[in-house]
Amino acid sequence: MRIRPRSTAVACIGAVVALLGSACGSGEASSLSPAGDPVRGGTLVYSYNTEAQSVDPATCAIGIGVGPCQAVYGALLDYDLETGEIEPGMAESFTTEDGKAWTLKLRPGLTFSDGTPFDAAAVAFNWGRILDPALLSPSASVAKTIDWEVVDPTTLSVTSKEVNYQLDFGLTEALAYIASPTAIEALGADFGNNPVGAGPFTLTSWARGTEMILDRNPTYWDQPRPYVDRLVLKTIPADDQRFNALQAGEVDVMAVTVQKYAARAEGAGMKVTSAPLLGGTGFRLSHRGPLADPDVRTAIAKLIDNEQIMNAVYPGEPVASGFTPEDSPLYDPGSAWPERDVQGAQKLLDDYRSRTGSGDIELTYVLTAGSPVLSQTAELIQSQLQQVDGLRVRIVPLEGAAFAAAMTSGDYDLIVSGLGGTHPDNLYKVFRTGGSSNNSGYSNPTVDEALDLTHTSNDPAVVESAYKTAINELVATNAYRFWRHARTDLISPANVHGVEVAYQYWFRPELVWIQQ
Amino acid sequence: MMYRAVARHAAKLVSVLALVSVTTFLLLETIPGDRLASVLPEGATPEMRAAAEERFGLNGSLPERFFSWLGSALQGDLGRSMQSQVPVTDSILERLPVTLELATLSILLALLIAIPVGVYSGYRPGGLVDRIATFLCSITLSIPSFLLGVLLVFVFAVTLSALPVTGWTPLSEGLVPHIRSLVLPVVTLAAVETVGFIRLLRNDMVATLQQDFVLSARARGLSTPRILLVHALRPSAFSLLTVMGVSLGRLIGGTVIVETLFSLPGLGTLVITAITGRDFLLVQGIVLVVAVAYVLLNALVDLTYPLLDPRVRTS
Amino acid sequence: MSHSLDKPASVVSEERLPILDPQDGSAPVDELTPPSAEVEPAGRRRRRRDVGAFFGGCWLVTIVLAALFVDLLPLPAPDVVGNLYSLPPFQNAEHILGTDQLGRDQLSRALHGARISLAVAIGATLVAMVIGTAAGLIAGYFRRAFDVVFDLSTNTILAFPPLILLIALVALREPSAVTLAIGLGVVGAPTFARIARANTIAYADREFVIAAKSMGSSSTRILRREILPNVLLPVVSFATVVAATLVVAEGSLSFLGLGVPPPAPSWGGMIAAGRESLYENPALVLVPGVFFFLTVFSLNRVGDWARGRVGRESSL
Amino acid sequence: MTVNGKDIDAVTQVLQQDTETPTLAVTDLRVWFDTPRGMVRAVDGVTLDVAPGRTLGIVGESGSGKSVLSRAVMNILAPSAVVRSGSRIEFEGRDTATLGREEARKLWGARMAMVFQDPMTSLTPVLTIGAQLTETLRRHLPMSRSEALDRAEELLEWVGIPEPRKRLKQYPHNLSGGMRQRVVIALALACSPRLLIADEPTTALDVTVQHQILALLERLQREQGMAMVLITHDLGVVAGRSDEIAVMYAGRVVEQAPTKVLFREMRHPYTRALVGSIPRISDPSHTRLRAIPGRPPTVVDPPPGCAFAARCPHARPRCLAETPVLTTDGTTGDRHRHACFFPVGTPAGDDAWTTNLDEGRTAAGLPVDSRSVL
Fold first, then answer.
1. Which intervals hold domain ABC transmembrane type-1 (chain B) (predicted)?
2. Which chains touch C (3 or more CB pairs under 8 A)?
């Protein structure tokens, strides 16, 4: 699974819910008419409920860590959520003919903020560093699949060990961030706290737990951007408190994953830029013990009542009737969840028990401790699954690291998790047999074949239909179940323009300008 | 005599700190499950695991690891946080001022309320003020800090929306917003301390006011406020000082609930993330710092006590 | 001699109940002497204090009985999810105290919560009492080396930031009522230990003990037959106050989400859950809050009364 | 020529001053305390006066109300005390009850001062001697800090404390009992009061120091020409040092007279019993000490009649019914008054005694035989 377990847990906790009676529909971005062309100057304040642990390029390519890295280093390539296209970023181009041999062209004369050249050797140095096991880099799993060689200061030839037309996605996140080699060698372990990159901003100060202040990088290649002089990242854990700060004008871009604030913001005349993410808030099923049997898995799928969960825990938010939302390009009627059918489930379970002669089935439902929303959902699911006799569910709340341990080691029957990430290639990592994040032991030939096709085929139509077949198969085999589509809302006052959702909870700070 | 007392306290301090460190170390050692879970990324390779164990000093025998940690700790290097690579000492020093400010302000607020109320109820025991104070004290003592915090938030922040619900506004953003963000947490923390101080001061005053020297002071025609504040309060102030010192020491480790409730970036929230994130070195560092604070303050109180109270001073 | 004794008599060094975070839910306590003399005419005052203790006692009895026999009461099960979500109290005959976000009956959850909170607190108090009294007896009687070890160990437990010790104990183990009770017990032990030790020292040089010694009875016999009965009284009188403190501790832990695992309801957990929708339905916090407050208040009042009663009889 | 410590001209001086207004005049003073057991009549109608330069000794067992009397005069009674209407305390002719705030401030502590029993606890333990002295001086007299310090040093020297300058910086617990009492006296006399009340000033001290302190008080009184009230339970202390003596019992003055007259012509059986209980060196060894049977009465809602009746060998039925009033019978000068129906040394007294002797017990049931005559 792309997102490091700890940040997913945090993301779920971030989804703190208040049971608001007020009705609120899902509002698409109400784009105000652009008020003239962009103006330079001003301070832009972004706020979310947690903060990055380090700004070291090798370790920041995960979940919440992405923000500061993108601001300081800029990404080699940028993935536009709306169009689904991958555009050039710090690099000029990244092209391939056969999906195996790729050529990375860099912008000539590009330098880091410490004056040293941003050239192919720098890229090679950073990618090589990611492979060093001591750095425990989450990007290592992608870096291992490729070899590279410096051709000339602005060109790097990359060969993928296997045909993979989605490799360019790797350069938008995992291998996207390039830091100044001289600074890395000079600072060593402390580099993570005082990074040197070529991106739109440079790190000025970092009061952990409260705020990080970044200022414009004068030598950024894409003048006149960034428009704002200063970017501030504020950490305000409680959603309602963050919303109060937004209304009080202390925050310009507020990231939130709970729908109700978007509605309240629109009511208050603010702009909401939102983007659907892959998957949703739900749980993943492992394949051990009784769960190896498809009948048991279908029975479980038939017992979950999305309606009831949403009404109780996320009132007013749209219910996820299937894997992909209707408005998503990958939507397919086949990806709808199975109908709720308690008798059917009871029959399936009885058949299974008579077939295998096993007694009551007991499943563990693992979740992160400390979040009332998650524990309420868990208690609801427990009561839903226990409507049939012969099935008992034990709720196991684990704090942060113990949860991560259970996740990575697959020591669970059902575990709270969201797919996270934006690019469908994440499905490859999580559900392809042997995928680097496939810790639930899921293995399905149809899914493998479809997902491999997405890598080997260069034809977008083929890739799209491959994803659809994979998703339908995932739903059919009940690999994963959720009741609420994952989405990110970036709320900003009317005078802030150019806000675009990027990665999961971040945006493109260099594109934003403030109308004074 | 004074040096022997200092030596005795120093020995006690060192031995308690040693014991605290060993206990924390053993506590963290005996945790079930994978100790690197929160650090290793998805699909971590065996080499990564080996490298991680080496870097965080998790290999080697238990005593080796402890003494290497202790060795560097004595030179002030408590190692690096496993997750953020920030040296433990830096992240503690960054968070300590917040907790210290919370603790000291709570104690000061408690004193501000306790001294007048304590003195007056001691002066007129059984009177109106005394009865009201005793009643309120027994009520406050029975409301746990997390409940009190939630109720205060409900009344002041939600209904009256006079104060921020949670969050910490650093001093750099102006005194008023800073103080506003501190009011509710400090009141929540100070509630119990105030009760303790009032009861202590009241009982002390009742006892002191029955002494003869108070009567002879009145016979000399000195004014009642002067007698209360100079002649009666001063001897009682010493035992108040002792309790204050101990409370401050305990508060430094005790603000976990309030900091979590109001999401303040103090040691309390740091320790919660450290423990849930199994960041052993960070936990070890924090517990040591808090224990040092507690023991130092206790020793300080024991040593300064004779200096302040002439009756005990053996000059 | 514990340092609090060698301070001049006129300075009443009230050794604070050194448990948990500052919220220790109990009056400052001096192990030896009873609450200091009130100048107020004693007659009137004793009657007033009894009233508080009386109501406290009644509440404790009702809550314990209700917690024990909650299944017999005509109440919906605590974890049955209904469809009336976060109903304010006194609006629905079936759910007198309203329902929580998942439509479960607040009253039955509160009573089941009481069962856990009280069970953990009482269990922990017993653990603390056993460990503390034993340690206090030994240290108080044999003194010398035991005293040093005693002093060191109590100070170490106290030096530990209380809640951090608890969190470390509980969070890093499989969270269950038993680990919680033991963890709380360890944190509660120093108080009992110090009371037991102080009383043991005081009794150790009383005539009847010296007489027993001279008749050649073994130390353990003396401890068990001569000293323990006398020490037990002041120790037990503190039980309620320590129990109050531990109920608060259990509440704090479940407030942080590290208490007894869901779906078992606990007051602290209910308050934490209610906190989310404080604005819409404050009753979600107030109902468990009132139960919590009344229980701790009663424990404190009964504790004061017991200490007052014990103070008079066993004044040394 | 001195008569047991009082030189003769002082005595003559006493006789001339009768007409002058008394420094202190207490008339019909009643001070009751509100306690759960009822109203305790600590002082139940006391009338006495002290002329300037004169010393009045007040004697009585503990619980007789003598301390309460002194605190009433000094206006430092406990909050639960109730001064009944009709009580009147005059200081140099002015009724202290009618004093305004400002005048009151000038009176108590300055013109009227008091010394307490236990020097160990009469000084604030946490303030230096100098601080306490200057505090009192600057409270009543317009003095700068340095002037006050110098005056304090003089005072200490005056009361006979060696190295006064050093003492100013010391704390009470650094001094001996006797030294501390001298400091207390210095504190009391700081503003040269007209009246000094000494409530058992030497009880807590050992005999040798006791003598020094009493001699010091006498010297200071003579130099200041101030009136003094010496309160004690020890007849020996007042015998040689006071011009007049008042004997108090159960909140009332039962007999008052010039010292010589009291010892030679005592009228009240209680006074005789008191004097009788002083062991004399002249007595043969092993003489049984004569104690007064019974205990001082509780003064809560006292029954009618004389309070001493239960323990008085002369008790007759009238004593149980009627309360004797303080009167003079003219035989021993108008300054000698007593409150008894069957006074000692009078025919009525002797008849009462012989009748009781015949009946073998007093009207109040106290068994009496020839040996128990006091």
1. 96-305
2. A, B, D
Q: Does D189 touch chain B (CB under 8 A)?
A: no
Q: How far apart are CA B229 and CA B237, in angstroms?
A: 10
Helix (H, G, I), strand (E, B) or coil at A15: coil
- Tell me if C199 sits within 8 A of C235, measured CB to CB: yes
d(CA C17, CA C128): 13
CA angle D306/D310/D316 to nearest 5° reads 65
Do the Cβ atoms of A369 and C273 come within 8 Å? no
ipTM value greater than 0.90: no
Q: Are B98 and B168 in contact (CB under 8 A)?
A: yes
CA distance C41 to chain D (A): 6
Chain Cα centroid distance, residue A326: 20
CB-CB contact of B281 with B39 (8 Å): no
Tell me how far apart the alpha carbons of residues C302 and C305 are, in angstroms, rounded to a whole number.
5
Predicted TM-score of the model (pTM): 0.77
Q: Where are the alpha helices (DSSP H) in chain D?
A: 8-16, 66-73, 101-107, 119-122, 129-140, 145-158, 164-168, 177-188, 207-224, 235-239, 259-264, 269-276, 317-321, 347-359
Whether B51 and A140 lie within 8 Å, measured CB to CB: no
Backbone angles phi, psi at D48, to 5 degrees: -160, 165
- pLDDT tens readout for residues D311-330: 888 888 888 888 888 888 77
Q: State whether residue B155 sits within 8 Å of chain C by CB.
A: no
Which residues touch A30 (CB under 8 Å, ≥6 apart)? A266, A271, A272
Pairing of strands A414-417, A271-285: antiparallel
Note the pLDDT tens digit of each residue in A56-110: 888 877 767 788 889 999 899 988 887 888 889 889 999 888 888 999 999 998 9
Please state the φ and ψ torsions of residue D5, each to the nearest 5 degrees. Answer: 95, -15
Answer yes or no: are the C-beta atoms of A75 and A173 closer than 8 Å: yes
Burial C3-25 (b: 16+ CB within 10 A, else e): ebeebeebbbbbbbbbbbbbbbb
Element (H, E) at C239: helix C228-255
Give the CA distances from residue D294 to residues B193, D67, D298, D306, in Å, rounded to whole numbers and listed in that order: 53, 22, 12, 15
Contact D35 C43 (CB under 8 A): no
Per the listing, tokens 């995932």 go with A474
Alpha-carbon span B42 to A436, nearest angstrom = 6
pLDDT confidence tier of residue A401, bands split at 50, 70 and 90: low
For residues A361 and A392, the answer to whether their CB atoms sit within 8 Å is yes
**Residue A455: phi, psi to the nearest 5?**
-85, -35
Residues of D within 8 A of B123 (CB-CB) are none
Closest Cα in chain D to C45: D36
pLDDT for C98-128, tens place per residue? 787 777 888 888 888 888 888 888 899 999 9
Among the partner residues C102, C175, C269, nearest to A380 by beta-carbon distance: C102
| Structure confidence by residue, pLDDT tens digits, C123-154 | 999 999 999 888 888 888 887 888 888 888 88
Does C262 contact A at CB distance below 8 Å? yes
Quote the longest CA-to-CA distance of chain D. Answer: 74
Quote the tokens at residue A135.
Answer: 């750095």
- For residue D333 the two structure tokens come to 């000068």
Tokens in use for B23?
Answer: 């206990």
Please, are residues C307 and C238 in contact by the beta-carbon 8 Å criterion? yes
Q: Do B91 and A208 touch (CB under 8 A)?
A: yes
Residue A106 near residue A118 (C-beta atoms within 8 A): yes
Is A54 in Cβ contact with B84 (below 8 Å)? Answer: yes
Give the SS3 label for residue D230. Answer: strand
Q: Whose CA is closest to C23, among C296, C306, C302, C301?
A: C296
β-strands A506-507, D6-7: how paired? unpaired
Within a 10 A sphere around the Cβ of C41, how many other Cβ atoms? 14
